[in-house]
Design goal:
alpha+beta, Immunoglobulin-like, 4-stranded antiparallel sheet, 4 helices, rod-shaped
Length: 227
């Protein structure tokens, strides 16, 4: 028996209760990897995502001065975009760069053709009154092209089911009717037999007439001899 294996053939670590959470996490990790494989790095994120209504504010709590940048991102593409990394360049009244906030925004998803709000926050690098302007851009992101359209299911047949089930019998009846019509038409066996019978009856009628004529002449001759 291999070292570390149980009598049932499973390695000993899989029998350890502390390893069971790892067995649950592993399928989720594999699924996440498969989804990530479908994503692509967004080319030219500046042109694909427009920043709308960006503004800056500062506030102080018990700790240091904090700088907050909020705004909206407009996805101009036809694909879903996520995994965004946003950069905010903070300037003073003269336009001089005095601070920068650059951080990934986890969980933010920009649907195709829609707006989504964002917020960045960091410790201020200058006094609150020094901040006068902000310029925001997306420096990287991932895009998810739509899945290819599935093949359309074949349309159901417009022929009724009962016709599909009975068409052999209907075909047989049609052929039988054609044969009957042909058999009873002009030149058929029945018509020839009827014509023969009529001709035979006419012949018998002529024979009877001839016999009656002969019998009549014979009777007239007998009367003449007797007179």
């Amino acid at each position: 028996m291999p070292s570390g294996a149980t009598p049932h053939g499973l390695p000993q670590p899989f029998k350890d209760p502390s390893m069971r959470p790892l067995l649950l996490i592993l399928p989720l990790t594999l699924a996440s990897t498969a989804v990530a494989a479908c994503a692509q790095d967004l080319q030219n994120p500046d042109s694909a995502i427009e920043v709308v209504n960006a503004s800056i504010s500062t506030f102080r709590t018990e700790g240091p001065l904090l700088t907050t940048v909020i705004g909206e991102l407009h996805n101009t593409t036809n694909d879903r975009i996520d995994e965004l990394v946003i950069e905010a360049r903070l300037t003073d009244a003269s336009g001089k760069l005095i601070d920068v906030i650059s951080e990934p925004v986890y969980g933010l998803v920009a649907p195709a053709g829609q707006n989504v709000a964002f917020r960045l926050q960091a410790q201020a690098a200058a006094a609150a009154e020094a901040y006068a302007g902000v310029s925001v851009r997306v420096i990287s992101a991932q895009t998810h092209p739509p899945a290819p359209a599935r093949a359309r299911a074949p349309e159901p047949s417009r022929i009724p089911d009962w016709l599909m089930a009975w068409w052999p019998m209907l075909l047989f009846i049609l052929i039988w009717l054609l044969l009957v019509r042909k058999a009873s038409g002009k030149g058929s066996f029945q018509e020839r037999m009827l014509a023969g019978m009529q001709e035979q009856n006419a012949l018998l009628g002529r024979q009877v007439s001839a016999l009656e004529a002969i019998a009549s002449k014979s009777g007239t001759a007998d009367k003449a001899d007797g007179g």
